# Entry
Amino acid sequence: DAAEQLTPVLLDGPREESLQLVSELKDSSCSCAVDVSTVWWEAAGCRELRVVTASESAVSLWEPLAPDCWGKVYTWHLREIPVIQIISLPDTCNLVCVALGELEIGEIRLLLYSCETDSFKHSVVKTGNIKAVVGLKDWRLVSSSRTMQEQQVEMVSLSETGGSKDGQTLMPPEETVTAFAEVEGMREALVGTTAGNSVVVWNLKTGQLLRKMHVGYSYPASICHRAYSDSGLLFVVLSHPLAKESESCGSPAFRVVAFNPLTGRSAGVMFSCLPPGHAGRQYLEGDVWDTAGAAVLTSGAVAVWDLLRGWCTAVLPPGPAGHWALARWATGGAGLLAGHRDGTVHLYRY
Amino acid sequence: CSETDLGPISLNWFEELSAEAPP
# Structure
């Protein structure tokens, strides 16, 4: 109820100039782009941010050749199972993680460069009917998978050679886990959202399921993107791809919600709603970095929000190349990557 | 521990819940 009373504010309408186009890269061999991301890469003693693009059958690594020019370094060909998404691993280097599958993830692979053999290679780290996956700091990967009878939630530690080391089974909630987010600054705390629209909290060290807290029926299919603890409260950034439009708050794409983990009670902190002219249908996919949210809207535009103020700060309208299909924040908040299905990616400074 | 609209809160909520939750 408290959340419903908050009124979002648009700061004189969204300003496109808060996004500055830095460079464009075009994968001419790409028939249908499925994801884009960035990765830290170290070669010849030089550590730099590289762009990773994924189509259904190939994942390519791009290096900066000049301030506004990118060149393809290497392409991993993955022809057996389609690539679905690139999984970010927060503090790794020379490592790309991808999810492959048909309608849902069936396999997670690591793509890497081996110094020992001076070659690029890939290896399987997880198979199954995987519903959700997240990369955590310290080379850890958490995934939820389902069999006919039960749900498994598991954390594995990744090795620099592309394998998996230690594992920890986490106690599964009754409902299917739809997304995970690490609790920033708390190495052993993890949150997840469920198909029943709850936020759950785990202890990664012991595997304990600590708390299940309901998000509310107004916001079905909520997805968690980010979590942090402050002053005894757990703040979770949620996106709401299917939230209904209401008179009081428009169409909320993102919400910041404060949970009291001790009591399970919650209160909305801020709404970030679809900008005027884009309301009605919801958004296709979103990404969060720090206090910035970005999403591809069904109108074909990309919208950017300041999530703590609830302001839409920028809108990229669909361009001559058509609708935007992808919006991802670069590692370390280095900018926004916006992509078209034809393999064109624009890198913006924000 | 202090009282808010969301009930009593604790800076050590993670440790407290870990001590209470089933192993």
